[in-house]
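Lecture 7 notes: from sequence to structure.

We start with a single chain of 305 residues. Read the sequence below before looking at the structure.
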Amino acid sequence: MKLKNALALAMAAVLAAGLTACGSSTDTTSPAADSTAAESTEAAADTTAAPDGDGDPTTLTVAMECAYAPYNWTQSDDANGAVEIRGSSDYAYGYDVMMAKKIGEALGQKVQIVKLDWDSLIPAVMSGDVDCVIAGQSITADRAAQVDFSDPYYYASIITLTKKDSAYANAASVADLAGATATSQLGTIWYDTCLPQIENANILPAQETAPAMLVALNSGACDIVVTDRPTAQAALVAYPDFTLLDFGGGDKDFAVSDEDINIGISMKKGNTALKDAINEVLATMTTDDYNKMMDEAISVQPLSE
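Now the structure, written as tokens:
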């Protein structure tokens, strides 16, 4: 799904140098376990099965922001297995890159990362410039009308961040956020769906990136930001003065649909061979596998210069 959420001026250079979300499911079955593949993974590696955006059937071309840690970020070297960014001397890493490499290995393809801003991701898939987007995108109806999505490769829970000394630090529900000055990342359910649910909120303009959103909170420009759990967990490492508010997903929490919290991999409509091949890979993974990968991404994300 999407959403969707790779930090300070250090994180902005961090996660920026470097949008939803920790799995809300507690069982150990794969989110993609019920999917059935019409074609084999080996077939998907064929020229006709998984056409590549640059015309090279040996390469899986994957777009992402490279600025949305811990999902994806930019770094200067290939540490931890980072992949070089197309047209750049920099490298990309994070949960999304780890997933891209796992899929590429299963398809017998090398992975090429393409760094794009958020609003350019879907157009790049639609135009055929890239094979797919792995970037923390929620599987919304609007997006699904333009591109095809894989089964979920992560579940995004909604989290509120504030400062430890904030008037909202002890909030136990969305109702307790009434009157807060708030912002989030542009083009996300956090901004478009969640913030309007806060009574009498002073909603500031949306921030271009997740790092910018966190800098706004750290600078005192707002009282709270709404994001997903992985982004929030990463922020706590970079910003020790932040605290995480989790309202539990019930009546006290933001009202969101399954499409808001299911994160998927998008590809050009009609590319069923690639979709089925990706779903086969996801079907081999459990929720524990996803969470372990995300924990690893959080542990190695760049935090400061």
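The radius of gyration is 18 Å. Keep this in mind for problem set 3.
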